[in-house]
Fold this protein.
Amino acid sequence: MIINLSQNNSLVNQFVSEIRDINIQKDRLRFRRNIERVGEIAAYEISKNLEYQTRSVQTPLGIIEIPVLKEQPVLGTILRAGLPLHNGLLNYFDQADNAFISAYRHHLSDGTFEIKLEYMASSSIENKILIIADPMLATGHSMALTLKEVFKLGKPKHTHIVSVIASESGIEKVRNSIDNFTLWTGAIDKELNSMAYIVPGLGDAGDLAFGEKIQH
């Protein structure tokens, strides 16, 4: 299932417009915070689809039955660009276990690149809800490779992928690589340029959030 959070008018559109804006992007704190806000909204929307159980809560004046999460999800993120989006999810699922994966583009001399995955630390995902964050779902190769490796640790009950902007080809790549997933995204763009960046997109989310990296 693909859920485009910008299809209906909401604050998602406001935050995504600021995330895209070349002038507002210059404020790194605001850039990171807006991505974090998209993560918070996605967490709230995802929470509507999770399982709940009733809990008795003692207040100063009595007892009330309230539905609460039956179990916490596992929150995963692809380093480094995914950290602000992950923080937004973690702000709401504040008791969740976490997973961290290092996946990046290794640029080759001919101008192409390959995806390198060098580090992964994760709690158990077996039969759990997995929510994995990456702000830009461009080619989809990083996400497909990451999930392939993560699934070696166990089979989740369901996988939720959260992005700020996704490309149509990236969505298709993930759709052809895994099943039993839901994608939550702040916007869907049609094109990739020759460098495999989303157009109009927003640029390099990791560089904008944390500073331009040295290519290697």
Q: What stands out?
A: The mean pLDDT is 92. The helical segments are 11-20, 28-47, 83-92, 141-150, 168-177, 205-210.
